[in-house]
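RECORD TYPE: inverse folding
INPUT: C-alpha cells
STRUCTURE:
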C-alpha cells in the first residue's frame, strides 16, 4: 500500500537515511530506534512534510508528493511535538482543525463527540486543555489525527511523557484503532510496541536493520541469552567478557542477563530472548554520541 523506494535523506553532508526500501501493508508497524536514528525524518517524509534527497514514496502506486489533497485525505498524523492552544477545550480544538480539514458542520457534530468518546475524553471535552495530563493531551492528539478516519495513521513518539498507566491505556486504544487501518508508530521504548506491533522496523546507521515480526527478530538471539549470579568483585571482569543486557541485585550478588555465543558454564541459565534483548544488542555500540538507548523506562 505504502512503498518507500530507495529513499535517502541528507542534511548537508550528514546522511540520516541511506537508500532505504520499505513496504507497509496492513497492521501495526513499530518504528523502534534510539533517539537520533532518523525516525522523525522518515515519518516527516511519509507525511510529505520533508522531501527525500533521492528516491520515491508511493501510495497505491502513486507518488505521495503529487497526490496533494488526496493523500492528506488518507493519512492521520500525530507529530512528535504537537501544538495546541492551552486555553481551548478539546471540543473547540477539534472543531477548529475539522474546519481546516474541510469537514462540514453536520459531519463535525457527529464525528467530534464520537472521537472524544473513543479516546475517553467525553467527560472533559469542554474543559481547557491547560489542566490536562500528558496522557490526556496525547489522546486529544490521537483524536485530531483520526478526524478524517484515515487509512494510514502515523504517530511519532506518541507515548513520550506518559506515565506507565497512561502507556497501557494508550496501547489498548491503538490496538483498537488498528483493526481496520495501517498504523505506523515510532518510539525508542521497546515496551511501547512489544505487545501491539505486527512488525518491528529498526533503523541503524541510516539503514533498515530489521523489518520483521518480533518472533523472527528474537530468534536471531536464540540460545545466546543467559542469566547468572556474579559475585560483586567479579562483575567488572564479567562485563568485559560478555555483553550485559540487564543487572539486578539479589541476595548480595548481581544477577546479570547477558549475551554469549554458547553456554560455557553450568551455572548459566539459558533464557528466552526478548525484543528488549535484541534492541540492546543492536544498539550496544551507540551508548554515546548522538544515539542513546534509554534504559530508564
Ligand atoms: N533539520 C535538520 N537539520 C540538520 N540535521 C537534522 C535536522 N533534523 C534532524 N537532523 C539530524 O538527523 C538525525 C535524525 O534525527 P531524527 O529524525 O529527529 O531522529 P529520531 O526521530 O529518531 O530521534 C539526527 O542526527 C538529527 O540531529
Ligand atoms: Mg523523533
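DESIGNED SEQUENCE:
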Amino acid at each position: 500500500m505504502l512503498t518507500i523506494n530507495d529513499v535517502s535523506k541528507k542534511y548537508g553532508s550528514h546522511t540520516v537515511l541511506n537508500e532505504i526500501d520499505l513496504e507497509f501493508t496492513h497492521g501495526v508497524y513499530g518504528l523502534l530506534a534510539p533517539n537520533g536514528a532518523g525516525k522523525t525524518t522518515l515519518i516527516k517524509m511519509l507525511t510529505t512534510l520533508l522531501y527525500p534527497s533521492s528516491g520515491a514514496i508511493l501510495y497505491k502506486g502513486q507518488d505521495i508528493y503529487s497526490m496533494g489533497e488526496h493523500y492528506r485525505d488518507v493519512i492521520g498524523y500525530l507529530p512528535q511535538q504537537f501544538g495546541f492552544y492551552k486555553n481551548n477545550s478539546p471540543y473547540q480544538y477539534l472543531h477548529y482543525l475539522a474546519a481546516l480539514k474541510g469537514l462540514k458542520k453536520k459531519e463535525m457534530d457527529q464525528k467530534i463527540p464520537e472521537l472524544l468518546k473513543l479516546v475517553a475524553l467525553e467527560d472533559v471535552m469542554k474543559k481547557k486543555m491547560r489542566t490536562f495530563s500528558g496522557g490526556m493531551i496525547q489522546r486529544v492528539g490521537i483524536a485530531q489525527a483520526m478526524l478524517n478516519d484515515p487509512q494510514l495513521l502515523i504517530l511519532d513518539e506518541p507515548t513520550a511523557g506518559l506515565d506507565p498507566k497512561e502507556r497501557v491505556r494508550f496501547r489498548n486504544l491503538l490496538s483498537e484503532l488498528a483493526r481496520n487501518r495501517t498504523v505506523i508508530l515510532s518510539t525508542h521504548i521497546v515496551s511501547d510496541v512489544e505487545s501491539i506491533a505486527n512488525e518491528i522496523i529498526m533503523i541503524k546507521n541510516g539503514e533498515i536493520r530489521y523489518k520483521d515480526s518480533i518472533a523472527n527478530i528474537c530468534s536471531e538471539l536464540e540460545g545466546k541469552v543467559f542469566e547468572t549470579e556474579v559475585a560483586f568483585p567479579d562483575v567488572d571482569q564479567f562485563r568485559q567478557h560478555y555483553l550485559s543486557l540487564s543487572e539486578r541485585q539479589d541476595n548480595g550478588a548481581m544477577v546479570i542477563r547477558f549475551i554469549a555465543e554458547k553456554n560455557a558454564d553450568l551455572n548459566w541459565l539459558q533464557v528466552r530472548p526478548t525484543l528488549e534483548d535484541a534492541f540492546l544488542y543492536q544498539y550496544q555500540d551507540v551508548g554515546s554520541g548522538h544515539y542513546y538507548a534509554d534504559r530508564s523506562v
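NOTES: The chain is about 30% helix and 30% strand.
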